[in-house]
Amino acid sequence: MLLSEVTNTGFFNLAPWIIFSPVIGLLVNIIYGGRMGEKAIGWLASAASGLAFGVSVLLAVSLSGVHGEAQVVLFADWIRIGELNIPWNFRVDTLSVTMMLVVSGVGTLIHIYAIGYMHEDVRFKNDLGRYRRFFVFFNLFIVMMMILVSGDSYLMLFVGWEGVGLCSFLLIGFWYEMDTLGRPSWANSNAAKKAFIVNRIGDLGFILAAMTMFWYFGSLQFGEVFAQAEEIAAHQPLVMIAITLFMLIGVAGKSAQIPLYVWLPDAMAGPTPVSALIHAATMVTAGIYLVARSAPLYVTVPNAQYIVALVGAVTALCAATIAVGQYDIKKVLAYSTISQLGFMVAAVGMGAFAAGMFHLVTHAFFKALLFLSAGSVILGLERGHHHLAHHGKSEMPAEAAPTPPKYGHGSSSHNEAFDPGDMRNMGGLRKTMPVTFWLYLIGSLALAGIFPLAGFWSKDEILADAQLHYPLVYILLTIAAFFTAFYMGRQNWMVFFGKARHDAAAHAEESPKIITVPLMVLAGLSILGGALNLPYLHTFTHWLGYTLGGEGAEVVAEGAAHAVEAAPWYVLGGLNLAVAGLSTVLALAAIYISWILYGRKPLTHGQIDPLKKMLGPIFTGMERKWLVDEIYWALFVDRYVDVSRFLADVIDWRFWHDWFHDKFIAGTYNWLSNIALDKVIDTRGIDAFFNGLGEMTKQASASLRRLQNGFVRSYALAVLFGVVVILGYLLIR
Amino acid sequence: MLPLTYYLVISAILFVLGALGVLIRRNPLIIFMSVELMLNAANLAFVAFARSFDVLTGQIFVFFVIAVAAAEVAVGLALIVVIFRTKHSIDVDLMSSLKG
Q: Is the model more confident about A546 or about A169?
């Protein structure tokens, strides 16, 4: 891959502004935000993100002007130690620009949405001061994500990688002193810590990969590393497998794959725009970006690729089954996100980088839409709840509040605070929140992969690629796709159809335009997003092919060639009608089954989930997330606590403090100072010496005192003698 | 003219007598007189030398000595008066407050 210096044509020199603009936004909000109104703060942050989007668009246009040739914009020296030279460069190629467009584009829409959302959220939670903090964090996230996608080396990427992790931590724990229902608790901050710590485990994998890479490649710059990839893979295949698999650990952490996905569901503790931006659309896709970016490395080790693909596929299926058993509207979407990330990881693992990135983009559209709509639903219910609290008339008896099932959220009880995110409290919102309903429906259908929405095209591209080379992955993903359609159907029936199961749902109010308009834009993108990469055209694949070079293009070409040469009658321009048809039929079947279970006879309050009656313990397993959290807790957290207890109580306290410090060091010191220094050297040596001096002086003076006898005569005699002696001496000499 | 030696011998005898007086006697008045004796022994030696070598220096010295001796007696007698007032005695052996 040749990297040309920045050409004079185009706007590549503007590249640093994708970072400057949100930096300026957050600085202004930090310094002057206190004097600015809510509107100004929110719009400034949105404008900062929007400007970054504008620059990204200019970069994309310029890039097509130079036929997608990767550009490196030199910006500053960063690390220069001896031979090691890591500059801070902006890499502008089709892959990074795609990510920039998604991050800043979807990011800007979510910023605008957050203006409305946070306005209400800070009022429900009763802390207006945090409005500004939210947008500062949000802009910081855009900064970090841009550093991640625009970095020209693994180290620069890692800076952004850690930065987004920090922002994720800050925003999950945004309401750190309460739980998701606003009760005083450390639940939210524990969720933030969990996300941070699990991500650290993944980051360890990333660091190991980077170190191994540096050891064998002598560089962390993308260009230099990729240039040597084939050679190293030929001579030291194990090194390459180690690097790619270490990297997979990092991917599993950031992109919530098995075994490190457990943090993402808990991350829903953050405000909904955070879930949409960070935990659905952008940050969690950083892992997919990393694999796609490292495509030249992965294609050299097919075994590692297969492992990546399997991890993705298993995650996709496992998370999809868990999503079926959830009651919290955001938890369903969280597991859905894990599942969809599994699709993407499987795709990039198979070498279908373009398909994976395509799904990343469409998923960003429809999952952001779903999360934001869910936020709108939650706000609607909170408004209804608020309304009731003020008007004080309840149409349902207190006992009629939904009875939690045996294994609800653990904390459920009759007296608990109202949970606006619990789907068992919803129902019938189609009438009270029509706009949100339609938006949510579009997002759901796009996610379920219904023709011709965006999800259909991207998911089927992945499935078609899997079907070509990896039958096991294909089967897993197809089943996962079936579950996807099912849980989305279940969610829609439960939330929007039937009758309200709670007073708040009955009095839910539609959200204002500031919230719904960004959603409409996202809905438009969710409908039309498939147009990026239509069969026959493959615009997006070719666009990425410029960057992924041989590798990406090869896979595409192979797929296309397969389609053309062996072309069975059902493959049209890369679209495998058999695969697409099967997945569509499965999706429709899943929606139909969900209608039978949840749509035909809507749930009434307190009713047990109908699926629970049918599946019994299996459903309980889904509902309880296959006990993964509990198993992790027992296997790792408790053991870790045991080890830290041991270290603290036994090693640190008893051994180190009690024995080593108190007995050994302090004891020895005491002995030394008491016995050796005090009793021997000090008392018998130094003390004795000076006492002796004093004694000598005393005795000398006692004998001298006798001369001073008080008789003037004897003094005169002494004088006389003195004179006689001196004179005698003078005479005799 | 008598030879110088005669004067010097008398001067030495006078000096020894004065010194013995200072050392032996306890009455401060006597001690003062003995001191005068020693001073005058010295004066005699000065004058004898001056005469013998025919220079005036020795004679001038004698004037100084007489003047100083007069001053010394004045101070000394005043001290004796004060001591008598406090101790009601002028025995020098009783003046031993600084005894070690």
A: A169
More confident residue, A405 or A717: A717
Higher pLDDT: A182 or A522? It is: A522
Residue A451 CB partners (closer than 8 Å, separation 6+): A580, A584
Place of tokens 């590393």: A225
Task: Mark whether A563 and A643 lie in a shared domain.
Answer: no
A429 and A572 assigned to the same domain: yes
Given a contact cutoff of 8 angstroms between Cβ atoms, the answer to whether A113 and A372 are in contact is yes
Identify the domain boundary among A276, A300, A324: A300
Q: Residue B95 is encoded by which pair of tokens?
A: 């003046």
- What CATH number belongs to B4-91? 1.10.287.3510
Which residues on neighbouring strands pair with residue A74, listed in sequence order?
A89
Q: Do B23 and A708 touch (CB under 8 A)?
A: no
Determine contact, residues A339/A315, Cβ cutoff 8 Å. Answer: yes
Task: Say yes or no: A516 and A368 in one domain.
Answer: yes
**Using one digit for the tens of pLDDT, what is the confidence trace for A427-471?**
888 888 999 999 999 999 999 988 888 989 899 889 988 888 888
Going from N- to C-terminal start, the domains of chain B cover 4-91
Mark yes or no for CB contact A705/B93 under 8 Å.
no
| Residue A638 lies inside a defined structural domain of this protein | yes
Given A539, A574, A594, the domain boundary residue is: A594
* Chain-chain contact of A706 with B99 (C-beta, under 8 angstroms): no
In this predicted structure, what is the pLDDT of residue A469?
Answer: 82
Tens digits of per-residue pLDDT, A641-668? 999 999 999 888 888 888 888 889 988 8
Query: Is A334 domain-assigned?
Result: yes
Instruction: State pLDDT tens for residues A22-32.
Output: 999 999 999 99
Is there a single domain that holds both residue A671 and residue A522? no
Residue A272 lies in a domain: yes
Question: Mapping DSSP to helix (H, G, I), strand (E, B) and coil, where does residue A576 land?
Answer: strand
**What's the pTM?**
0.76
Q: Are strands A84-92 and A71-81 parallel, antiparallel or unpaired?
A: antiparallel
Same domain as A234, residue A134: no
Number of domains in chain A: 4
Average pLDDT over residues A42-70: 90
Name the helix (H) or strand (E) containing A90.
Answer: strand A84-92
Domain that holds residue A17: 1-152
Q: Which pLDDT belongs to residue A84? A: 78
The pLDDT, as a whole number, for residue A604 is: 80
Q: Among candidates A211, A231, A224, which has minimal Cα distance to A153?
A: A224
**Distance between A665 CA and the closest CA of chain B, angstroms:** 55
Contact status of B29 with chain A (Cβ, < 8 Å): no
Which stretches within A507-538 are classed as H helix? 513-528
Give the mean pLDDT of chain A. Answer: 86
Is-contact A333 A270, C-beta < 8 A? no
Give A328's DSSP letter. B
Q: How far apart are CA A718 and CA A704, in angstroms?
A: 14
**Within a domain: A621:** no
* Token pair listed for A357: 């990135």
- For the record, the structure tokens of A37 come out as 């109104």
Interface test with A, best of B25, B92, B98 (most A CBs within 10 A): B92
Strands A71-81 and A571-572: unpaired
* Residues of chain A positioned with their CB less than 8 A from the CB of B21: none
In terms of Cα–Cα distance, which of A298, A306, A337 is closest to A320?
A337
Q: What is the pLDDT of residue A564?
A: 45
Same-domain check for residues A204 and A96: no
Specify whether A331 is located in the same domain as A292: no
> Is A106 a residue whose pLDDT tops 90?
yes
Q: State whether B96 and A711 contact (CB < 8 Å).
A: yes
The Cα-based distances of A97 to A69, A254, A646 in angstroms read: 12, 20, 50
**What is the C-alpha to C-alpha distance for residues B72 and B80, in angstroms, rounded to an integer?**
12
pLDDT tens column, A552-594? 444 544 444 444 444 555 555 667 788 888 889 999 999 999 9
